Amino acid sequence: MRRVVVLAVVVAALLPAAPAWGAPITLASDHGLARYDDLVRFRGTLATPNPQQVQLLRDGVVVGSTAASAGAFVFDLRARRAGRFVARSVLGDSAPVVLRVKPRLRSRMVGTRGIGHRILVVGRILPTRSGRLFLRFGARRAPARVGADGRFRIRVPSAWGPNITGRVTLRPSRGYVAVWRRVRVRLAYPSLRMGSHGASVLALKQRLSELHYALPGVDAGFGYHTYEAVLAFQKVQGLPRTGQAGPAEWRALWRASAPRPRVGAGDYLEVDKSRQVVLEVRAGKVERVIHASTGATGNTPVGTWHVYREVFGWDWVLYHPMYFLRGFAIHGYPEVPPWPASHGCVRIPLWIASSLRERWGYGSVVRVYA
Asked: Would you state the pLDDT for residue 84?
């Protein structure tokens, strides 16, 4: 038995030494946070001076390889992606080193600097998949369309108004940090009137429609219906009743909200004699604001009434009338000036009289205010 033990010891002594698989390997970088494309140096050491091949891995993918010399090694890498880096050799893996990246963001404005015209914020974000990009203006935001090369474009919504100071902001993915660029939009106020046409007219009508002013459609032409909608807006805002849209109207358009009714509940037609408008109110909210003209002598009766009779088409000179007291009615008429001009009825434009009667008609509540 003693001879067997001695022989085993001698054989073990003659065999080559097994590699030290558990020997430590270290890794450190000169940046924890680097700007996109900056040069980052990774340094490391091995517990043995013997020559070793060392690989650098980012999130498990090999991104570099070098030979260690005298137990030390170096990697130089461009910071184009964030990740967890480790050094690997036959001795094992180092502890991970986390590298965060600050993306590169460039932006500029393109397009015609006029209300209603197409205005874009364009630029480039690198690396491409570093997060989600938005144009922010207060609580509102518009997303960017980012291509495979990192180039993006964002259309500035016309509803945000003519004066915008916002930011193109990156909501970063893990490993990246937020970046932003300031965006300032200053647009000229166009002067529009009957006969005007183009993108600015379309923007005007879109905004009037958003505020619930009655229009038969939204397009790029400024006709008589647009004139009447502008008149209704000017009446509600206390502006001169010109039917034209100039700087004062544009400033008011972006500040304004939809009109509020006198009574915050129920369904009814509200006739406002002081502002010369009719409001369609459903569930206490204004659905539509209509240009109107009441009695020239102020004789349109104030109070709460009900439609007791309606007529399809013409009734003498009244078009689709809805009678709410004796001979007083809300009706269409060929001429609806910006001031009180009727014999006591409530005139509204001919184009909306039929649909108004169809939406309301017999039994509807009419509230007339001084």
From this structure: 97
